[in-house]
Each structure stands twice: as structure tokens, then as C-alpha cells.
Amino acid sequence: MAGPLTGIKILDFTTLLPGPFATMMLGDMGAEILRVESPTRPDLMRFWPPFIDEKKTSAIHSFLNRNKKSIHLNLKHKASTDIVKKLIKKDEKSTALYGLYV
């Protein structure tokens, strides 16, 4: 069953709890979420117990990032910022740590 936000694409640059929770709810309503993470500064929720397997996968991180695709980009590199610019131009919607821009 399609949700009310089916067809909406969102780039998720959020970390910790509030932003990922907000984008999780958007994903639950059918939006396609692409989570952009830093390879050098991982989301601290990855290290929050309890862990659900021997790989130390955080239950809360798994919960908050359900229904999301993920990509690691170092935004200090031009090639990575070029990728983000293309994604923003293509999808025209993004979320940031301090706000939701739709």
C-alpha cells in the first residue's frame, strides 16, 4: 500500500535522535529517504546500547534508520559535494540537523 508521501525523495543529513526520528516517520509514510553520513564522523546513535547482534549493531540506530538507504560521503571533498549538489538538484528536498526543508 502506498503512503501519502510516496514519490517524495528526501536527503537526510541529520544525526543523533530528533532528525533521524523525523525522517523515519517520513519514510514510514512512504517517502524515499537517502541518509548521507560522514565516513569520518559516524552518528553517535550507532554506539548506543542495546546491541542486537555480535557486530554491535545498535537497536536504536537500526530502528531510526529503517526504510532508509544510506551513503557515506566526506563533504570536505569536492567530489562528494558535487554528488550532493546533483542529488539536491534532482530531488529538490533535503533535511538538515537544525531544520526540515521541503
* Overall pLDDT: 87
Q: What's the CATH architecture name? A: 3-Layer(aba) Sandwich
Query: What name does the CATH topology carry?
Result: Rossmann fold
CATH 4th-level superfamily = Crotonobetainyl-coa:carnitine coa-transferase, domain 1
Computed CA radius of gyration, to the nearest angstrom: 14 Å
**What's the multimeric state?**
single chain
Number of strands: 5
Distance between the termini: 23 Å
| Helix percent band | 25-40%
SSE order in H/E notation?
EHEHEHEE
Low-confidence parts, pLDDT < 50 over ≥5 residues? 97-102
Shape: flat
User: Based on helices, strands and strand pairing, what is the structural class?
Assistant: alpha/beta
CATH top level is Alpha Beta
Please outline the helices and strands.
Blueprint: E1 9-12, H1 18-28, E2 32-37, H2 59-64, E3 68-72, H3 78-91, E4 94-96, E5 99-101
Parallel strand pairs: 1-2, 1-4, 2-3
Antiparallel strand pairs: 4-5
Describe the structure.
With 102 residues, the protein is α/β, with parallel strands linked by helices. It has one domain: Rossmann fold. 30% of the residues lie in helices and 21% in strands. It contains 3 helices and 5 strands, in the order E-H-E-H-E-H-E-E. The protein has helices at residues 18-28, 59-64, 78-91, and strands at residues 9-12, 32-37, 68-72, 94-96, 99-101. The protein has a 5-stranded mixed beta sheet with strand order 3-2-1-4-5, sandwiched between helices. A hairpin with a 2-residue loop joins strand 4 (94-96) and strand 5 (99-101). The longest helix has 14 residues, at 78-91. It is flat. The chain starts with 8 loop residues before the first strand and ends with a strand. Mean pLDDT is 87; it is low at 97-102.
